[in-house]
Amino acid sequence: MTVNKIRLPLAAILVSCVCAHAQASDIFNGREVYDMHCQTCHGMDGRAMEPGVPDFSQGESLFAPDADLVRLLREGDRHLPTYRGLLSDDELRDVVAYIRTLQR
Fold first, then answer.
1. Torsion angle of alpha carbons 59, 100, 42, 63, nearest 10°?
2. Confidence of residue 23 (pLDDT cuts 50, 70, 90)
3. Phi, then psi, of 9 in degrees rounded to 5
4. Which sequence spans correspond to the domains of the chain?
5. 3-state SS of 30-48?
6. How far is CA 56 from its chain centroid?
7. Does residue 8 register a pLDDT over 80?
8. Which of the following CATH numbers is that of domain 24-100: 1.10.3720.10, 3.90.25.10, 1.10.760.10, 3.40.50.1820?
9. What is the pTM of this model?
C-alpha cells in the first residue's frame, strides 16, 4: 500500500515534466519575429539576400535539430548576431518552426 502511495505522485511529477517541454511552436508568431529580425538577410521567402547567407527555401541549413538551431540563434556566430536577451527561447523556437515552412 505504501508503494502505491509513492508511485502515484512520482508518476504525476514525471508526466507534468514531460508535458511542460512538449509545447507546440507558434509559426504565426515565428513569422512576425522573422519579419522583424531575419528577413533583411534571409529574404521574405527565405531566399538568401547575400552570398554566404543560408537559404531557408532550399532547406540545407535546416538539417540540424530544433534545439541546435535555437542554440545557434541564441548564441550567434561570426555572421549571425546573438539574440540572447533580445528574444526568448519560445520566440526562437517559433522562428525555427516558421523557417521550416519556407522550404520548397
1. -40
2. low
3. -65, -35
4. 24-100
5. HHHHHHHHCHHHHCCCCCC
6. 14
7. no
8. 1.10.760.10
9. 0.75
